[in-house]
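The aim of this short unit is practical: by the end, you should be able to scan a pair of folded records and say something sensible about each. We start with the first protein, listed as its amino acid sequence and then its structure tokens.
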Amino acid sequence: MAETKSITELEQVLIDDFSLFDTWEEKYEYLIDLGKKLAPLDPSYKTEEYKIKGCQSSVWIHSAYKDGHVYFEGDSDAIIVKGLVSLMIMVLSGHTPKEIVDAPLDFINAIGLSSHLAQTRSNGLRAMIKQMKLDAAAWGS
């Protein structure tokens, strides 16, 4: 079985990927592409129970626990936000609850997302991260 990368290593991969683009237009295109590659979320999870509160657009995150690791899947009805969902799943899915809860997620600032997202998207991203960490904490208890 392939060695799983740590959250920090995955963050560095994204930092490196985003550094290949010169403009924010290109970075947004990359983000949109990541969203397009996101596996479809089962419609049974597109309910209020899985909806992230605090997001302007609709965002659903579902978590599952298997063999000591938390796995996330999600979706959004907005293309850029779907890319953000994809980013968070890439970084956090497949790790232990403690690793997820403790992750500082410095890559968000490192790639410049926090300064280039509209306030509403930034709030939504924070709400998404908070919910993913809460889910991980619940699985870990």
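Turning to the second protein, read its sequence before its tokens, just as you did above.
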Amino acid sequence: MGISLKTHKILWARSGNMCAICKNELIVDSQDQNDDPSITGDEAHIIARKETFTKGDYDSLTPEQRDHYSNLILLCKTHHKQIDDQPSYYTVELLRKLKCSHELEVKATRSEAEEKRQQDDIIYSSYVDEWQRRADLDNWRNTCSWLSDDTPTLPKTWYDSQKGFLIWIIGRIWPNRNTSLENALLNYKTVLQDFLNVFDKHIEYDREETEFLRTRKFYKIREHDEERYNLLLDQYNSHICLVNDLFFELTRAANYVCDKVRESLFSEYRIQEGALLIERHMVGFDLRTIHARVEYRGDERAEMPYPGLKMFKEIKIHNKRLRA
């Protein structure tokens, strides 16, 4: 899974954004207002993360323990390269001593207000980690792809995890310092609630399969009644469109959370993974796979971008009329 956001935040905060060896600042401010600050530091492993490195007893830690805060030290790129090249001098014991002594020095200079802000950021980071885990962001496109055919389907593990998230998020104790991030998470929760409520209306519960939840094709009726069949088919197609539209909105809400995390907690959050994408299979006559990036833009980037289900449906109907 890699280093968690909470671990990132603890390590950088307790290190004062400085290299534990040379004490150089590892965040360089931009020279132009259109540029982002530059990150020049590395989160180095005390006991090596990969077996090919020789520093420390690799087998003494589990994969999760190797990415734990206790096994990380913040360094400039020069000293990161040096400790990798010189493991005989920069032993595990020495690196732990350097880290401890550096963090004590940083703590001695920190005010109570700074200490409180650090604790608040760690709480926010732990909430984001839990949201990311339950939403399964790394497999988002795969989850989305199950909704793309004529039978909207969800993996049951994802469905159950999201149901649990709705209860979990209600019980959070918010520090009320970073309201922009709090609102982004609550906006995601509101979209998710409507998405699951709509999806729930026509779940096919009588299937033996347990790995997936599928939408029941309720337009299939036993009696020959063309008028009723066509009416139900129109309702089914409208239901499919709404399910997919709401998952598009959920993707926008998830990308908005990631944006707010980068703005307020950690500028490198999910930079390598990039934005969440919509994936659709068998599109058009050539049955191609397409990908789309969906985000809130311009005036949509409000405190709570999602307008609620009633207004959402009205906007979608209005936009479809404009395109017709």
